[in-house]
Amino acid sequence: MENSPLSISIIEARDLPRGTVNPYVVISVGSSQQQKSDFAEGTTDPIFNEVMNFDITTGKEDVQVRVISKDMIEKEVGSCSLHLDDYNDQYRHENEWKNLDKGGRIKF
Fold first, then answer.
1. Cα-Cα end-to-end distance for the chain
2. How many domains does the chain contain in total?
C-alpha cells in the first residue's frame, strides 16, 4: 500500500448522540492530510455520500475519522480509527459499519 492512492467513501452515520446538530465528518490521514465533508442539516442520522481521496506514502499512516456537531461551537460527537493493515488486500471494501467511541456508528 506504499505510494498509492486511498479513496474513502463516507456513506452515512446512524444513532449519533442526542444533541448532535448539523453533523459533518473530518478524516485525517497521517499528520498532513485532512478533509471535511459537507454538513448534514438537522439530523442525527445523516447521509453524506461523499468520497475523499488521500495519498498514502508509507502504508503505516493513522486514519482518524471524527464526526463533528456544527452548532454555535463545534464539538466532536464521536470518532474511530481505520487501520490500513486491515485493507492491505487492495480490494474494494464497501458497506462497512464502524462504531464511534461516544455512541453511534458510521458507514464507509
1. 19
2. 1
Tell me how far apart the alpha carbons of residues 50 and 69 are, in angstroms, rounded to a whole number. Answer: 17
Residue 23 near residue 103, CB atoms below 8 Å? no
Q: Which residues pair with 33 in a beta bridge?
A: 29
pLDDT tens column, 42-73 = 899 999 999 999 999 888 888 999 999 988 78
Specify the amino acid at residue 17. P
Where is pLDDT greater, at 35 or 20?
35
Nearest to 46 by CA among 100, 92, 93, 82: 100
Q: Which amino acid is at 63?
A: V
Confidence class of residue 98 from pLDDT cuts 50, 70 and 90? very high
CATH number of the domain that 53 lies in? 2.60.40.150
